[in-house]
Amino acid sequence: MSVISALSVSRRPAAAFVVVGLFWGCFAAYVPVIKAQLGANDALFGLLLLGSATGLVSSMWLAPKADKILGPRAMQAGVVVLALVWLLPAQVAVPAIFALAMGLVGMASGLLDVVMNARVSELEAKHDRPLMNANHAMFSLAYAAAATLTGLAREADVTPVLVFAGFGAVSLLMAPFLRMDVTVVVADDDASGRYPLWPILMAGFIVLVAFMSEASVETWSALHIERTLGGGAAEGALGPAMLGFTMAFGRFSGQAISAHVREVTVLVSAATLSSIGALIAALAPSPMMAYVGFGILGLGVSVIGPLGLALVGRIVKPHLRTEAISKVAALGFSGFFLAPVLMGQVSQAFGLRFAFGAVAALILIVVPLAVSVGKMPRADGKS
Predict the structure, then answer these.
(1) I need a labelling partner for 237 at 20 to 30 A (CA). Which of 218, 261, 314, 330 fits?
(2) From the CB of residue 41, how many other CB atoms can be counted at a distance below 10 Å?
(3) pTM above 0.70?
(4) What is the mean pLDDT of the chain?
């Protein structure tokens, strides 16, 4: 299935991926401004982001229930709430209140993350085609575009709240088009109601490592370029933008590759490539070389998370799919917020070069995890 065809089939959840990408791209480019606004050092800023981690994980465990209640309007509700709560951290100068605001952001983002990934998995099962990479590519494109535009806004001294409000207005205009009927799957008579814990844990850790690596670059690359390498505001914003553009390219390419190459092979190759990219960024003597490193990392890590989510959707029974994905997402997406916290602590103690070197080592954990998941039987009986 071509990328265009895949996006046509999954156009509604793809639009939700765009909304999430817009806000996180904007936030990544504004991190140096928001951090200075709070008067926080690396360690404190990392700890403040735990608020979003708490909100994200809690909402993901509740997401299946919210999905059942909201049904076809779940994505719409998630977009509206996300657009509103992002206005809070953009204008807060008190660290404790910022942490609470990010907690609300995490809850809204978590709800939308689970629902849109579950909808893609439903469509994959319905059409028997891989769709996850194409949808995650839309997140990356939106993220990169938002980071680039936000970098220009920073150069023009536009305040964060105005830019977040602008992206919020765009998101609210998209909300009416996100209504999507839910596929209700009834369990077979011989189907077990218990979740296969091991596949969920293994796939969850694959997604966790991928998103921890991605989040490390999203949150700290601008600071690395501006502080460690002496770049300006626009140069700093190009760090997360480079990640987003190369991840979009990697995911669109992965959409085609995943139809012909075994997932394990793709995961092992991608982990190796991203590890090399992180190491280049850590050792970079200039912003340009850092862009090269972040770009290589983006190409590799781009397909790891989506493949982990897609794999669990194929391993578990159809009637368990949404809740299984929510559990993998709860574990995996927590990496988006745990990584910045850990990066802050490591950076405060050893510097950002060492911190990105640690990211290079972390990504290689995917290799043994991928081999283990690749040996598990699928719900459809395919190898």
Answers:
(1) 330
(2) 12
(3) yes
(4) 84
